[in-house]
Design a protein that fits this description.
With 265 residues, this protein is mainly beta. The protein has 2 domains: 181 residues, no CATH class; 83 residues, Carboxypeptidase-like, regulatory domain (Immunoglobulin-like), CATH 2.60.40.1120. Helices cover 2% and strands 54% of the residues. The chain has 1 helix and 21 strands. The strands form 5 sheets. Strands 2, 3, 4, 6, 7, 8 and 9 form a 7-stranded antiparallel beta sheet that branches. Strand 7 and strand 8 form a beta hairpin. The longest helix has 4 residues. The two termini are 35 Å apart.
């Protein structure tokens, strides 16, 4: 499980349920919204060229068409570690023909950096020969309606440490895609704020992770279903905990009570 669209649009606002009333327009507006699940490092920058959208165009069910939505900001580097606690960034936006989206291909750049204690570390792609990340999607597009596709870049899974001394890293981008129209939210707060914990949302054998912002707030945007939440303190002095049977419903936010990490006996 994991989430991304053209131009800066809706930055720092709610990215859900932006479906407009239908009109006579022959196209559908598609927003690719990038959010993040930042890891334990100070900050992470990734370079994204854009996203190719594959559509079975209405009336041509046996033939697909591809549309490239370019991320048009300057050097194309995005500080994804800032996209937490409900923040998102539209990296692609366009009107596309009605039909069915059957796939996305995120085209990564080559300049990816991790910062720790004011020092920058390069993160070359794990697969240098193919910078495109293919994602499966099944979304019907109706003319005159706006859709959000939320792409979640899971840094916990994406950043690979090749060695500790010297620190050498690779980036193997791990995205999940959620239809913003049908998605729901899980939100909560953790303490103490001095920790840099990871919070995992689990369904079956699949999981996504996130980290709290500076206020301790975390948010997941996912498809409806029943989940578990695993609180990992990332500090051996504290205990971890799993919360089960967490429901997620379309268009609703499941509020999780304040969770306080406790020191081990």
């Amino acid at each position: 499980m994991n989430k991304l669209v053209v131009l800066f649009f809706l930055l720092g606002t709610s990215l859900f349920f932006s479906c407009e009333s239908a009109d006579s327009a022959p196209t559908a507006l598609v927003n690719l919204v990038l959010v993040d699940t930042p890891a334990k490092w100070d900050s992470v920058l990734v370079e994204i060229e854009g996203v190719e959208v594959e559509i079975l165009v209405q009336g041509r069910e046996t033939e697909s068409q591809r549309f490239f939505l370019e991320y048009k900001n300057g050097d194309k580097q995005i500080r994804v570690s800032d996209l937490i606690g409900g923040r998102g960034l539209i990296i692609g936006r366009d009107e596309l023909p009605s039909g069915k989206i059957i796939g996305l291909s995120v085209q990564m750049g080559q300049n990816h950096l991790l910062y720790q204690e004011k020092k920058a570390y390069a993160m070359p792609l794990a697969n240098m020969t193919d910078p495109n990340i293919s994602l499966e999607v099944d979304l019907e597009l109706e003319a005159g309606i706006a859709y959000d596709l939320v792409l979640d870049l899971d840094l916990e899974k994406s950043i690979i440490q090749k060695s500790a001394s010297p620190l050498q890293l690779q980036l193997d981008p791990y995205f999940s895609v959620v239809d913003g129209v049908t998605a729901g939210e899980v939100s909560g707060t953790v303490t103490p704020l001095t920790l840099k914990p990871a919070i995992y949302l689990i369904q079956g054998t699949d999981s996504i992770s996130t980290h709290p912002n500076t206020s301790g707030i975390y948010i997941f945007r996912v498809s409806p279903g029943i989940y578990s939440i695993y609180f990992d303190p990332k500090d051996s002095r504290y205990s971890s905990t799993t919360l089960t049977n967490v429901p997620v419903e379309t268009g609703k936010t499941t509020e999780i009570p304040l969770y306080t990490f406790k020191l081990k006996p």
